[in-house]
Structures are given as structure tokens and as C-alpha cells.
Q: What sequence folds into this?
């Protein structure tokens, strides 16, 4: 065991644990003069006001297991007798001093985070001059530069450990030790709001990448493949990693029951996860189809949520295709201009509702005078209905219908989405509600 020190080493510090949580754990024993989070290692270092305060804390927690947000943490004396500024820079890439540039790490990132999303989150606290996003071992990260230091401090205090979306995309915010961000391109990965005339670099990654000091190797022109890997905490299948490059057209292959499926039914299902460009049934493989999504992230969502789903007594096998796109022709069905694509408007909101098939389906754009009985008659051929409720929201009739299982709900959605009910074209999606 290390000799007594006023520096305490804390292990098993999960991403959900904030600096304030640690302060509350140790402040009863004395003032905490320095606190450094080692996010990449799930650890932290705290410096108490003196050695006796640290000794009292460790003696107390020898008999009482310290726990934060349901997670046990483990403490011991650090080998450091004191945390110096140099040590903080070496180990943690930041200093405790407030700065107008924030280093933001996003944990549990289920939905795409772009410069525009970050600007919407951080701009209420002051004028944001520049944003750069990149991928590191700690996860998807961004540097946010404010015009004023106090704005950055206010944003950090207000947003630390908050979620961008319900239940995911948690913000972990630290002060950077950079003095100025260098931005070469204005696109979805980097933006200089003080210079709107920068190029967007659509032709590909620049061979000259700026260095960002405390963030190591950065990827300001991050590929779509990298963005998807960041979003899901992993990566694409190895055989696709190099091949895809800057291509954003993906295909998905699915096995299905050929006598009961067509392009429109596949559209109804896959359009829950993104806009559909075109669909092609493979005549030489009647239980296969190619579905071309609007971009790589949408394809990743479809693969993630639909793999193994049940439909018409079969299990869907949804994977990436070796083909980057579907060639237009008489054997493919084009949906690129379809007004039934769900992500033309409110795309960010729609991403939040993406999920695997559930027993509950949500019906919208219903006729104002629709009855529950009419809805049941429209859907009952797909299996027993456990419960249903018609309601009004913002002056529009909607309904929730609970089926007996996920497969029946999926069949009802696939067959009845975009069909006419008393003159109205109804829209159906899965609901994450458990009961009505």
C-alpha cells in the first residue's frame, strides 16, 4: 500500500459519475483543492487540503463501501504526494484553470452528433466561435471555443453530465489547455462561425491535418464510417472499413418470405431508420433484397435494430452489402423522391424514436372521426390485438395499438403503413411504451 498522501486515487469511476459526485464523497473530510478525471481509465485523482484529511477519508471508507450512482468505487493513496500542473497536463491533457475552450466527450452516443447539434446545445451560454469534432480512444469528442471565458465556464457548469437526448449522448466537459482552435473547413465535422467563407472540403480528407495539442491525433474530416463507429462505440465490419471510404451509400441484405413481401412493404419497414433511395428484389435469390439507405448512419441503424427481427414466420438477416449502391433500372424501385420518406423533416426527432420492433405501434394522420373499432377492423387480420387507445394531440387524431407480440406488430406495420383508412393515408411506427 502506498504511503499516506493528500492525493487520493479513485478507481471504477464510470462515465455517469461527475466531478461533483466525487466532491460530495470527499468534502465531508476537508476541502478538495484539486480534482482530475482520468476518463480513458475510469479513474480520478483528488488532492485534499492536507494529509490528515485524506487519511480520515480512507479510514472511514475502509469500513463503509463508497458508492456513487449505484456503482462501487475503490480508493487508495496515490503515489503522488501532490498534483502539479505539469502532471495534470501529462496525464490528463488539461489544467484545472478555466479556459474559453472546452473539451467535450460524448458517452453512450446512440444518435449522430454533428457540429450543428453541438452548436445548438452550447450556443445558449454565449457566442461560440469554433467547433471541431474528432474520434479518440475515449470516444467521440469535440472542442468548443467561446468568445469569452465566462461563457465556457457557465456552459460547463450547466451541461456537465447532462444528456443531449433522453437516456443517451451524455456530455463530459473539461477545460482544454489550448489557446486557439485552428479550423480549415466548414462542414458537419468542423466549423468556424467567425469565418463563413471557408471551404467545405467535399472532395475528401485533406493531407494537411491541424494538430490540436492536448487531444493528440485528431480527425477533423472524419469519414462516415468513423462517425458510425463513434455512434455505436464500435466499428463497421472489417471488410467494409477501407472499402467504404467516403461513400455514404450502403445496402442491406435481408432474407424474407418471398410470397408475402414486395418493395413497398420493405420500404415501410426500413424507412423507420432513414430515407430510402431505392430497393431491388433479387430475382436469382428470391429470399434476398437490396435496400439502399440515404446515408451510412441510417444503414447502420437499420442493421442494428432489424437484425434478427421476426416477420412472416422468418428471421430477418440484415447485413451490409458489398455493393455501394443500387443501379437504377426496371428491376429496382426508386423512392428517392417519395413523400413517404420519414426523415425529410424533423430528422433529429425521428432518430430519437428509432428502436427494434415492439408489440406497440403508433398510428398517426388518422381521420378526425375515426373510432377504435374501425382501427381494430383495419389491423385485426395480422393477429390478436391486446389493447388500443384513440387520442388527440395538437388537434390531430392518433392511436396506440398493442399487439400480442413483436412479429404481429411488425406485420401490421409492414402491411398497413401508408394505406388508406377512410380517405386518410395513415402512418405507423413502433412505440417504446410498454402499456397503454
A:
Amino acid at each position: 500500500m502506498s504511503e499516506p498522501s493528500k492525493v487520493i486515487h479513485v478507481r471504477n469511476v464510470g462515465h455517469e459519475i461527475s466531478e461533483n459526485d466525487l466532491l460530495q464523497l470527499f468534502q465531508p473530510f476537508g476541502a478538495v483543492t484539486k480534482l482530475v478525471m482520468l476518463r480513458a481509465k475510469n479513474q480520478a485523482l483528488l488532492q485534499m487540503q492536507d494529509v490528515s484529511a485524506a487519511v480520515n477519508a480512507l479510514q472511514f471508507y475502509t469500513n463503509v463501501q463508497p458508492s456513487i450512482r449505484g456503482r462501487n468505487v475503490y480508493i487508495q493513496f496515490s503515489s503522488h504526494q501532490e498534483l502539479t500542473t505539469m502532471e495534470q497536463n501529462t496525464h490528463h491533457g488539461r489544467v484545472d484553470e478555466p479556459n474559453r475552450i472546452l473539451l467535450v466527450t460524448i458517452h453512450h452516443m446512440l444518435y449522430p452528433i454533428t457540429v450543428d447539434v453541438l452548436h445548438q446545445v452550447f450556443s445558449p451560454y454565449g457566442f461560440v466561435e469554433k467547433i471541431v469534432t474528432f474520434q479518440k480512444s475515449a470516444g467521440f469528442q469535440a472542442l468548443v471555443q467561446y468568445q469569452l471565458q465566462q461563457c465556457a465556464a457557465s456552459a460547463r457548469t450547466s451541461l456537465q453530465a447532462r444528456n443531449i437526448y433522453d437516456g443517451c449522448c451524455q456530455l463530459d466537459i473539461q477545460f482544454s489547455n489550448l489557446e486557439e482552435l485552428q479550423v480549415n473547413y466548414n462542414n458537419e465535422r468542423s466549423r468556424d462561425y467567425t469565418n463563413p467563407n471557408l471551404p467545405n472540403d467535399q472532395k475528401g480528407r485533406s493531407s494537411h491535418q491541424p494538430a490540436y495539442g492536448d487531444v493528440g491525433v485528431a480527425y477533423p474530416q472524419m469519414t462516415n464510417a468513423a462517425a458510425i463507429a463513434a455512434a455505436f462505440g464500435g466499428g463497421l465490419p472489417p471488410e467494409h472499413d477501407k472499402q467504404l471510404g467516403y461513400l455514404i451509400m450502403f445496402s442491406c441484405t435481408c432474407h424474407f418470405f418471398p410470397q408475402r413481401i414486395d418493395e413497398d412493404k420493405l420500404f415501410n419497414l426500413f424507412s423507420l431508420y432513414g430515407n430510402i433511395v431505392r430497393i431491388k428484389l433479387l430475382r436469382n435469390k428470391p429470399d434476398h433484397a437490396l435496400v439502399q439507405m440515404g446515408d451510412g448512419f441510417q444503414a447502420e441503424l437499420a442493421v442494428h435494430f432489424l437484425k434478427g427481427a421476426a416477420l412472416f414466420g422468418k428471421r430477418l438477416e440484415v447485413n451490409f452489402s458489398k455493393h455501394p449502391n443500387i443501379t437504377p433500372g426496371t428491376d429496382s424501385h426508386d423512392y428517392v423522391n417519395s413523400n413517404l420518406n420519414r426523415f425529410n423533416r424533423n430528422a433529429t426527432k425521428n432518430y430519437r424514436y428509432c428502436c427494434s420492433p415492439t408489440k406497440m405501434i403508433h398510428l398517426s394522420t388518422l381521420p378526425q372521426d375515426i373510432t377504435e373499432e374501425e382501427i381494430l377492423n383495419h389491423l385485426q387480420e395480422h393477429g390478436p390485438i391486446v389493447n388500443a387507445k384513440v387520442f388527440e394531440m395538437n388537434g390531430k387524431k392518433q392511436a396506440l395499438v398493442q399487439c400480442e407480440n413483436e412479429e404481429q406488430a411488425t406485420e401490421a406495420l409492414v402491411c398497413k403503413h401508408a394505406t388508406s383508412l377512410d380517405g386518410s393515408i395513415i402512418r405507423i411506427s413502433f412505440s417504446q411504451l410498454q402499456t397503454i
Observations:
- The longest helix spans residues 51-63.
- The two ends are 56 Å apart (CA to CA).
- The mean pLDDT is 79.
